[in-house]
Amino acid sequence: MALAVNGVRANPYVNTAYVDQGNGKTTITPFSDILKKEKEQAAAASAQTASSSGATSPSGAATPSGAVSPSVGIASTNGTTGKLSSDGKLTTKLDDIFRRASEKYNISYDFLTAVAKAESDFNPNCVSSAGAKGIMQVMPYEAKELGITDVFDPEQNIMGAARLLAAHLEKFDGDTTLAAAAYNAGSGRVKQYGGVPPFKETQNYVKKIAAYMKEGVKVPDKTYTVSPNKLSGDVTKSQGTKGRGTQAASGAQSQIPGAVPATDEELNQSMVVVGSGEQAVTMTYGAYLRYLELGSLGVG
Fold it and tell me: CA–CA separation, 157 vs 138, rounded Å?
């Protein structure tokens, strides 16, 4: 059975998710549940590795190499504290946007606000000489790739930038120094030089971000009326990834008495179709997970 990605086929199931030891039959489980569990396990393994190597402390202190786990200092919320009107407009505090973006994209609130401080000092109307716009100084081509329809809308600008920063953090194993360098100079440059590029602007930029993170940044007490889009998700509910992943994984198992997780070999026997028409590519489920890890955000 094949799963089509990007809506090519409307079958959201993989047929080797769990195997009943009693009769040897395969039980169908939603692919989304399996994917959430895989991501949860990967995040747990990463956190355990970071902990054993002394990568960070609960307070978010940096390691000797300057890396900070992206999940340290996540701003857990219960949804927006603002007012959502019937036309989809949201009146909200600026800090509320940062906290929801931190939770939505699972990155440090301190890191996100430090970048905003360095980029525009929280000015939503800021435009650089290079054409970067808004609080997080998003470039026009980035706005298009990220799904930002109004780059001067604080909600969309911050959410889009948080998504981009999350992609950089994933690419560089949670190292905020390298993620900040990639945000400033591009991930290609960071890879090219094997670290922070030898550009004076980028060198000073990463030092500024580190200083802001250490001393803490106070977000201005300002209220904006914004237009959330798909980047924000459901602004009325908490979007913490850990809670959702745990619930999905436990729910999938509880529905199948005697079921056990499928082996890697069994999972890899499920095929996934990515793309459509002549561009369609069929790959194993395992390959698809690697595909998601490397490029699901489609940015950077």
Answer: 7
Strand partners, 127: 133
Q: How far apart are CA 260 and CA 26, in angstroms?
A: 11
pTM above 0.70, yes or no: no
Residue partners of 31: CB distance under 8 A and separation at least 6: 3, 12, 13, 14, 17
What dihedral do alpha carbons 284, 273, 240, 78 form, nearest 10°? -160
DSSP β-ladder status, 2-4 and 271-274: parallel
Distance, C-alpha 191 to centroid of its chain: 20
200-231: pLDDT as tens digits: 999 999 999 999 999 999 999 999 999 999 99
The three-point CA angle 86-87-93 to 5° equals: 85
CB 167 within 8 A of CB 300: yes
Say what percent of the chain tops pLDDT 90. Answer: 51
CA pair distance 271, 283, nearest whole angstrom: 6
Which residues are catalytic, by number? 119
Cα–Cα distance for residue pair 298/22, rounded to 1 Å: 42
User: Closest Cα partner for 232 from 296, 149, 291?
Assistant: 149
